[in-house]
UniProtKB/TrEMBL annotation:
Transmembrane segments: none annotated. PANTHER family: HEAT-SHOCK PROTEIN 20 FAMILY MEMBER. This is Hsp20/alpha crystallin family protein. It comes from Amycolatopsis alba DSM 44262. It holds the Pfam family HSP20. Belongs to the small heat shock protein (HSP20) family. Residues 26-137 form the SHSP domain. InterPro entries: A-crystallin/Hsp20_dom, HSP20-like_chaperone, Small_HSP. Gene3D superfamilies: 2.60.40.790. The lineage of its organism: Bacteria, Bacillati, Actinomycetota, Actinomycetes, Pseudonocardiales.
Length: 146
């Protein structure tokens, strides 16, 4: 259902973890967007942890079965503050999921509660299991009835 093959993103994440450097050259913890994904009946559910992100700072886009989640955590302190400790990453976080053809991307539902973005993606009707009836020829039916 879900394909997570983006080698460049994985390489970037690895180098950030090893070296701890951001694009600005400062040392910090890498910005991540942890997620869980599972199938629940006829739905595929994906949950992203986005604590401290306002709902209006989240963008969801889908193009050719690639779902992009972008969120921005903004500072919640004024400009005249002298920060003593700053461990929570700020800025823009982005993650892409490659969705399989078996999912109905036209009917994705999104909800945001308690810092968790939950996406519910229905399984496409064509991908659901179905029973196929077997029919025989007219002469075969007459033989069975006799």
């Amino acid at each position: 259902m879900l394909m997570r093959t983006d080698p460049f993103r994985e390489l970037d994440r690895f180098t950030q973890q090893v070296f701890g450097a951001t694009n600005s050259g400062t040392w910090s913890k890498p910005a991540t967007m942890p997620m869980d994904a599972y199938r629940d009946g006829d739905e595929f559910v994906v949950c992203f942890d986005l604590p401290g992100v306002a709902p209006d700072a989240i963008e969801l886009d889908i193009e050719r079965n690639v779902l992009t989640v972008k969120a921005e955590r903004r500072p919640n302190v004024g400009g005249d503050v002298q920060m003593q400790v700053s461990e929570r990453p700020l800025g823009v976080f982005s993650r892409q999921l490659f969705l399989g053809e078996a999912l109905d991307t036209d009917r994705i539902a999104a909800g945001y509660e308690a810092g968790v973005l939950t996406l519910r993606i229905p399984v496409a009707e064509k991908a659901k299991p179905r029973r196929i009836t077997i029919s025989g020829s007219e002469s075969d039916r007459k033989k069975i009835q006799a």
